[in-house]
Automatic annotation (TrEMBL):
<keyword id="KW-0904">Protein phosphatase</keyword>
<dbReference type="GO" id="GO:0004722">
    <property type="term" value="F:protein serine/threonine phosphatase activity"/>
</dbReference>
<comment type="similarity">
    <text>Belongs to the protein-tyrosine phosphatase family. Non-receptor class dual specificity subfamily.</text>
</comment>
<protein>
    <recommendedName>
        <fullName>Dual specificity protein phosphatase</fullName>
        <ecNumber>3.1.3.16</ecNumber>
        <ecNumber>3.1.3.48</ecNumber>
    </recommendedName>
</protein>
<dbReference type="GO" id="GO:0043409">
    <property type="term" value="P:negative regulation of MAPK cascade"/>
</dbReference>
<dbReference type="GO" id="GO:0005737">
    <property type="term" value="C:cytoplasm"/>
</dbReference>
<dbReference type="GO" id="GO:0033549">
    <property type="term" value="F:MAP kinase phosphatase activity"/>
</dbReference>
<comment type="function">
    <text>Dual specificity phosphatase able to dephosphorylate phosphotyrosine, phosphoserine and phosphothreonine residues, with a preference for phosphotyrosine as a substrate.</text>
</comment>
<keyword id="KW-0378">Hydrolase</keyword>
<dbReference type="InterPro" id="IPR029021">
    <property type="entry name" value="Prot-tyrosine_phosphatase-like"/>
</dbReference>
<dbReference type="GO" id="GO:0004725">
    <property type="term" value="F:protein tyrosine phosphatase activity"/>
</dbReference>
<dbReference type="GO" id="GO:0008138">
    <property type="term" value="F:protein tyrosine/serine/threonine phosphatase activity"/>
</dbReference>
<dbReference type="InterPro" id="IPR020405">
    <property type="entry name" value="Atypical_DUSP_subfamA"/>
</dbReference>
Amino acid sequence: MYLSREIARDRHRLKAMGITHILNAAEGERNSVNTGEQFYSRCQIQYYGITAEDIPSFDLSQHFYSSADVIESILRKPESAPSSPQYFTLRFSKRL
């Protein structure tokens, strides 16, 4: 798992990094990361979006369980699961 802001718009870099799935926690038109399933389809990256504003006052907690379900379903697929549990890492490309 890799958390990012700007890199989310760089399909070539995502593919080079081995990213297979995107969970966009700021999908929408206002104060958001304006990408979507179409944006990633050409590079065969699976997409899941949460309609939310990327502002401090937005209550993102309402989406925690559905997001966890998506991540869990991805990890259950043999082709998507990390080769070993210790390899599953969480990285930040920029302070959030």
